[in-house]
Amino acid sequence: MASIAVRQIVKEYTPGVCAVDSVDLDIEDGEFVVLVGPSGCGKTTLLRLLAGLERPTSGSILLGERDVTNLAPRDRDIAMVFQNYALYPQMTVAANIGYGLKVRGLPKQEVEARVNDVAKLLGLEGYLSRRPSTLSGGQRQRVAMGRAIAREPQVYLMDEPLSNLDAKLRVSMRAELERLHQRLGVTTVYVTHDQVEAMTLGTRAAVLRDGVLQQVGTPQELYRSPANVFVAGFMGSPAMNFAVGTFDGGELSFAGFRLPIPEACRPAVRDGEQVLVGVRPEDLLDPRFAPADAAQFSVPVAVHDDVGHETLLYFPVPSCAGEAEQVRRLVFEQEQTEPRLGQDGSRVFCARVAGAPAPLTGGELSVALLPESLAFFDLAGGERLTTARVLVS
Amino acid sequence: MTRYTKWTALREAAFWIPAIAVILPIFFLISLSLKTPARAAVSGVAPQVPPTFDNYTQAWHEAGAGSVTFAQALGNSVLTSIVVVLALVAIGAPAGYAIARRRSRLSSVMFGLFALGLILPVQLATIPLFSFMVRAGLAGTRPGLILAYVAFFMPLTVFLYTGFFQSLPREYEEAAQVDGASSLRVFAQIVLPLVRPVTGTVAILAGLFVWKDFYTPLVFVGGTSKETLPVAIYGFVGKYATDWNLIFASIVIALAPILLVYVFMQRYIIKGFVSTVRG
Predict the structure, then answer these.
(1) Which residues from chain A sit within 8 angstroms of residue B279, using beta carbons?
(2) Contacts of residue B278 in chain A, CB cutoff 8 Å?
């Protein structure tokens, strides 16, 4: 087992275009860190740099005390699970699992013993003589894991290993991965574009965008204290609601809401200055269960999705000229459009309430909002604006 | 269930006509090879009952107009075919792999040169190549003939391998690298087994070409003990100007090995053009 230190790593495929841009990252021995971000953010490139499958343009990588920056993959003592598993089609499952051991010169009996142990651990005993083409996706994924585990490396690198599985299998394999990590305790770097996996799997997660590291922290830190608007919008499903707001005296106006904001919850902005306001769907509360001092509003519900244990309510909100473009520029990728836009182009908020909401009256519903649940971001750069409450917490 | 209509019958007839055109010469070939000269002169169509295998025995033992016995020519053909195929795979596969995997201007230029080799007719190179062979002391030798075949067939070999390697996902090689395999081991143990269909295609196409080629051995080893079967059979034409029974018998003997190999290797030809890799 070993720690990983990434120092100012840069990877340019073409001059001036950085796939990974000056990333610094420290991973503790035995830690499970998830690299998460949208497609093209550089997470897989960073993983491949750790594996030695790509050479960095500049910067260094340390595995424990060793500088492995210019070492070939075979000399780094790492094992990798690929997105498409990359099982050798011409070999049996046993040969696949044992290939790394055979290549490194282990005696035949030891290879066989380790293969059998790993097969037992992953429930593959009955499949050892079969070829990958005869296995299901979940079985292939376990064989790929087995190939990595058998090597007993210092670090596991996993490149979206669950992305080709169906939703139900993904959930069960996620649990199995957690169990394996708890049992084996090996330093693991896991790449995913799924922020639910990032929230549930890792001890910490690193969010990337356009090759730049946005924030590293525990899943709760990323969710509750995002460093910028991109992290706030990326983590959480349904995504955070955003609107441009303005302070006027002790009150904040945004998206048709107007509510008093205590000094402790207010960022250091002047009256009349615009800020980007974020509120999580679950922070738009059902007034029946909200604290008495929560501000209440009546909203016209356009769509409500009853998913059993909760209900998602979508309601249009008024927006000023250019607001949609401002939000889109800060929160989403360049080629993306804001997903929650009404048919007439109006912006839509999402509220998440537990169980069934109060009955609609004339198509309208009441929601409650607490000022301390609001997050504020700078409109120019998207950085989170601190409040006295944030500083204290 | 499909009804058998007059159109079905017409379609069947349309398939049978070219089939008969292909089968008929083979029928005559075998039929005449199993007849005595006297019976062959009387009737060229009706098979002889019982057939005679004397033509085969005589063709095998008789020397042709050239410098080789039939048995020697058969041995030359087998040896030349096998060595050419092995050399093509041994050189062409790594060359195709290097061109496919190394993204550089040199790779593109090399591939372009090999593609040019596909387009240019081999006969254009005959005179300068022969002149070179003479100066190098390779004219009339088996290594010279093998070198000529390897050179003529290398463009297609590299073209086939390069295309297949380019379609092969890199993850297999990367997984092997992470597992600890050296570049040579990755190529030999992981990549090469995955391109078996292409290797089979190269083997059968090159082997077939060398086996039945008349022009190249006539030019480079004609009149020597290194003649291959097609040239040796041509020698029989001179000696037995009208004894087609012996000529046909020798042709059937020449066909037999290649047919046997083709029966076992034909699935690789189809796989070589349409195969995918799963795993």
Answers:
(1) 85-90, 131-133
(2) 89, 132-133
Interface test with B, best of A45, A76, A88, A139 (most B CBs within 10 A): A88
Residue B36 domain-assigned (yes or no): yes
- B248 neighbors B26 (Cβ within 8 angstroms): no
ipTM of the complex: 0.83
Domain containing B167 equals 27-274
Interface test with A, best of B168, B170, B179, B195 (most A CBs within 10 A): B179
Select from B172, B182, B193 the Cβ nearest to the Cβ of A86. Answer: B172
pLDDT (tens, 9 = 90+) of chain A, 393 residues, equals 689 999 999 999 888 888 999 999 999 999 999 999 988 899 999 999 999 999 999 999 999 989 999 999 999 999 999 998 999 999 999 999 999 999 999 999 999 999 999 999 889 999 999 999 999 988 999 999 999 999 999 999 999 998 888 888 888 888 888 888 888 899 999 999 888 888 888 899 999 999 999 999 999 999 999 999 999 999 988 889 999 999 988 899 998 889 999 888 888 888 888 999 999 999 998 888 888 888 888 888 777 788 778 888 888 888 877 787 788 777 776 655 555 655 566 788 998 887 766 666 557 788 889 999 999 999 888 899 988 655 444
Interface A–B counts its CB contacts (< 8 A) at: 69
- Widest CA span in chain B: 74
Sequence-distant (6+) residues with CB within 8 A of B110 are B95, B99
Which two structure tokens, joined as six digits, stand for A164? 């080709």
Global pTM exceeds 0.90: no
Residue B17 counted as domain residue: no
Position of tokens 């001890």? Answer: A203
Q: Which residues contact A51 (CB under 8 A, 6 or more apart)?
A: A73, A76, A78, A80, A157, B174, B178
- Please indicate whether, in this complex, the C-beta atoms of A103 and B185 are within 8 angstroms of each other: yes
> DSSP letters of B44-96?
SSSPPSS---HHHHHHHHSB-SSSSBHHHHHHHHHHHHHHHHHHHHHHHHHHH
Give a yes or no: residue B74 inside a domain: yes
CATH code for the domain of B185 = 1.10.3720.10
Backbone angles phi, psi at A213, to 5 degrees: -75, 120
Nearest CA to CA, how far is B170 from chain A (Å)?
9
Asked if residue B10 is part of any domain, the answer here is no
The number of folded domains in chain B is 1
Of all residues in chain A, the one with the smallest CA distance to B172 is: A86
